[in-house]
Design brief:
Elements lengths: L2 E5 L3 H7 L8 E5 L2 H10 L4 E4 L2 E2 L2 E2 L4 H5 L7 E3 L4 H10 L3 E2 L8 H9 L3
Parallel strand pairs: 1-2, 1-3, 3-6, 6-7
Antiparallel strand pairs: 4-5
Amino acid sequence: MAEILWIENNARFLQAVRGLFLTSHAATVVGDIADARRLMVERVFDIVLLDYDLDDGKGDELLPDIDRLDPRPPVIATSSHDRGNAALMAAGADAVCAKTNFTGIDAVLEKWLRTL
């Protein structure tokens, strides 16, 4: 079981997918950059799922903070639009699983968890 930090603020999306995916992992969900920064200092996560459009900014603002973590968890970009995922990848995310392809999140997670 992986400890996942899921940075996502779309309540409708969370409600729709939370019971269907990530059920074999412990996912902590926050909706903004400030809460994500606080949690990353307090706890160690195996992987980060990161949306682009958040309540208090853009998800790519978090990549420098994540890069300073030891160990640095892999980051999966999970925006609903290509522009957001491209920005997250340019900032240092390791992979993309767009919301439109979220049925594949377990396969993406397993790939990255094997590298840990």
